[in-house]
Amino acid sequence: MIDKNYDHINSEPYIYKKWEESGAFSPPPGKELDPTRKTFTVIMPPPNANDPLHMGHAMFVTIEDIYVRFHRMLGDATLWLPGTDHAGIETQFVFEKKLAKQGKSRFDFERDVLYKMISEYVSLNSGVAIDQMKKLGASADWSRYKFTLDPEVIDQVLNTFLVLNERGLVYKAEKLVNYCTKCGTAYSDLEIEYEEKNDQIYTIDYGNGINVATTRPETMLGDVAVAVHPGDERYQSMIGKTIKLPLTDREIPVIADTMVDMEFGTGAVKITPTHDHNDWSVAERQKMNLSEICSRFKIIGENGKMTASSGKYVGMNVLAAREKVLTDLGNKVVNVKPIIHNVSVCYRCKRTLEPLPRSQFFIKVKNMADKVLNALNKNEVEVFGSGHDKILRHWLENLHDWNISRQIVWGIRMPVWYKLDNIGGSDFVVSKEKPVGDYVQETDTFDTWFSSGQWPVVTLKTNKEGDFDRYYPTSLMETGHDILPFWVMRMLMLGLEITGEVPFKKVYLHGLIRDEKGEKMSKSKGNVINPLELSEKYGTDALRMALIMSTTAGMDSNTGENKVRGMRNFANKIWNAYRYITEKPPLDTEDCENDKAFEQKIAMTSREISDNLLNYKPGLAAELIYSDFWHYFCDVAIEESKKGLISDKTLKNGLLVYLKLLHPFVPFVTEKVWQDMNLTDRMLIESPWPTN
Fold first, then answer.
1. pLDDT at site 71
2. Neighbouring C-alpha atoms within 13 Å toward the C-beta of 594
3. How buried is residue 10: exposed, middle or buried, by Cβ count under 10 Å (0-12/13-18/19+)?
4. N or C: which end of the chain has fewer CB within 10 A?
């Protein structure tokens, strides 16, 4: 007797073990692959090696596994190459919180010691993400697994930096960067998050009829000018003259710049290049001596406290200095108003970022961005995701040079060397090995996105012999739309620069997974869903189907426990159809009245599902197979078979076709039914896709 209900708890580990042991996940090494055989390659977006998976991870596993299983059944040499990410800043931030609980900080340890401690911490948890992806049914080739800090991966990343330097695309410069005084590192422009905050805007009398409005009065100690619009009649007589900066004995000029909005505030703007990005741009346009300005007027340090350049306010934190400055200004503060504005914050610790001048390494991106735009124009890469191709173009057309220096330990150390008498200076040597002589290495590490931006290239180049030549460019890059500028764009830029080819031909961007009410999941709201708990409770197939059903590329979707519970019923529907067909009393007839119509209907369904998958509409394909199996095969065809209108043989063959069509979406229950029917030695995962 067949069990009444499908037992996912016992079936899933057994089925996955059989898949792994069969070698079905592993295509031939590139050197052994028939050059005439089509390939389908997906490089897995590497999740943080140290973190458990969330619903976004479950979504990418589901979508990518659907495509991998589909193309494997089509007969393509299908490679899904997995890996995990060291997640530099995020991992070090978590580790530092762990140290803080012990009353310690990163500053208590030498660099090499701290790196080793973080590495050991990551190693303890490194198997978590892999085990969880396997539980979600990921049919990835684990024999080709890569970690972003594998020695051979690091070597390839360093090679890329050397090549970029040889091509004149690397330079070091003192620029204004976004700096987190808590995490102790700079970020690129793309990594900034913004939060809406209630604040105060203060109008300060700068003398000579000029009032300046600012939300940061403490930075006035670093002012080098006051700017007005060249067309503002109110200030024409003051342009080119000087005024005395309050609280100091310095004279600063009144300058004209079109950056100033005459309609906002007083129409007069304080210019503090060392602590404001717009002001830095003004200083560049006005040809001010930024080097001198940085040395004299950097009034907030990397520790978040006021520097000696702030005079008597030295050592105060920013907010304390603000209150003291306002007190000292006295009646020069002529107005105070509340304001709601967006403030840049650290994406990890949420502290307000400080724009600070710092000497950093940058990559010139203009030519690389143009190459990607050219590839998009030639349709060498296609983006699926509700207008995100236009968003990608916008980013590419407005990119600033990429700040790749990070002041953290956990990452790939930059292969930059200085002579002892010029540590951190402008003269440096780029080399993987220490140059001969008295040289010391740069302490900064690469931005994590610099190494992961080379992921499709380095994972294939450091894998089985011939893999890069046969599996690159890859077929599909699938990831969340929220990391389009962070990761996808940079992979396109670096892939084209390194290899001359796009790293992938298709980009599928899934949306955010929201709760059942459509609200963004967050710990503070208490609505975060653990996908592994739902998988264990209702079955992996139910979770996968709930995630993918009716989704559209680039659009957010809602998933909750009720939806997953409902999809458990679908897995049981498949099981019950198998039970009925296996256990029903046989009919005498070989050919029945509706056999041909039944076969034609299945053939049409097969074509539609194939078309939807090939056109990157997996949500529509899932909806179609769900509806067709439940409402046609079960509700119509099985009922017709009971009346003798469809023969046993035709119905059974129809079930086998449906199992194939369903397999990419609900792999466990379909494989279990297939094997229990015991019709062939070939597993369902290796069976050919239905063709017509």
1. 98
2. 18
3. exposed
4. N
Sheet holding 382-384, edge to edge: 77-81, 39-43, 474-480, 504-510, 382-384
SS3 state of residue 225 = strand
Give which of 596, 594, 605 is closest to 630, Cα–Cα: 605
In this prediction the pTM is: 0.90
Which residues are bridge partners to 383 per DSSP? 507
Residues in the chain: 692
**pLDDT at residue number 52:** 83
**Dist CA 327 CA 218 (whole Å):** 11
Residue 685 · residue 72 · CB < 8 Å? yes
DSSP one-letter code for 484: I
Residue 289: DSSP 8-state: -
pLDDT of residue 558: 86
Task: Spell out the residues 6+ positions from residue 121 whose beta carbon is closer than 8 angstroms to its own.
Answer: 50, 95, 98
| Short-list 441, 438, 356, CA closest to 403 | 356
The architecture that CATH gives domain 193-346 is Alpha-Beta Complex (3.90)
Q: Splitting the chain (692 residues) into consecutive groups of 10 residues, what average pLDDT does each group show?
A: 90 97 95 94 91 89 98 98 91 88 89 93 86 96 96 97 97 92 82 86 93 94 95 92 93 94 89 94 94 94 94 94 96 92 83 91 97 97 93 94 93 96 90 94 94 97 96 97 91 97 97 83 76 95 96 90 94 96 83 94 97 97 97 96 93 96 98 90 94 74
Query: Are 666 and 545 contacting, i.e. CB atoms less than 8 angstroms apart?
Result: yes
Contact 85, 157 (CB under 8 A): no
Residue 426 Cα distances to 173, 401, 670, angstroms: 8, 18, 62
Place of tokens 């899934």: 510
554 near 385, Cβ under 8 Å? yes
**What whole-number distance in Å separates Cα of residue 314 and Cα of residue 326?**
16
The single-letter code of the amino acid at 268 is A
Whole-number Å distance between alpha carbons of 291 and 299: 14
- Domain segments of the chain as ranges: 193-346
In contact, 205 and 211? CB cutoff 8 Å: yes
Closest CA to 470 of 35, 127, 145: 35
Count of alpha carbons within 13 Å of 189, Cβ hemisphere only?
Answer: 11
Query: How many whole angstroms separate alpha carbon 243 and alpha carbon 235?
Result: 13
Within 10 angstroms of residue 394's Cβ, the number of other Cβ atoms is 11
